[in-house]
Design a protein that fits this description.
Elements (H helix, E strand, L loop, with lengths): L8 E5 L3 H12 L7 E5 L4 H12 L8 E5 L2 E4 L1 H12 L8 H8 L2 H18 L1
């Protein structure tokens, strides 16, 4: 018998443009109230715990990450958006104008800044 009390848990890195992309999509699909969200900072204990969970599950740590079923994890914003769009009967290409606005607007610049920030952080370590 399936666990009807399970709520997917989404881990979102505070400065991650991909995490924001997922959150926008879930909100626009009207699904965000079905999730428990954990927002974390790079290098904190929450990130360490998530990295351990993903590694133990055989998944390369990346963000966002969602526990889609008990002990089952999935990463990559586009794959997660597609998964939950299918479940909601939504076409992400035509039914999510806010997501399209984000992707065509500030998202590319956020990616550029995110990569620069990561390169600087990696150089400092």
């Amino acid at each position: 018998m399936p666990d009807t009390t399970f709520r997917p848990r989404a881990w979102l890195l505070k400065t991650c443009p991909f995490c924001l992309k997922l959150r926008i999509a879930l909100n626009e699909m009207g699904l965000d109230d079905r999730f428990d969200f954990t927002v974390f900072e790079k290098g904190d204990d929450t990130e360490a715990d998530l990295r351990r969970r993903l590694t133990d599950a055989g998944i390369k740590p990346s963000y966002p990450a969602v526990e889609v079923a008990p002990g089952e994890y999935e990463t990559e914003s586009d794959r997660l958006i597609a998964r939950y769009a299918r479940e909601a009967g939504v076409d992400p290409e035509t039914d999510l104008p806010l997501l399209a606005y984000y992707e065509a607007g500030v998202f590319p610049k956020f990616i550029e800044l995110f990569k620069e920030h990561q390169a600087r952080a990696d150089a400092d370590t």
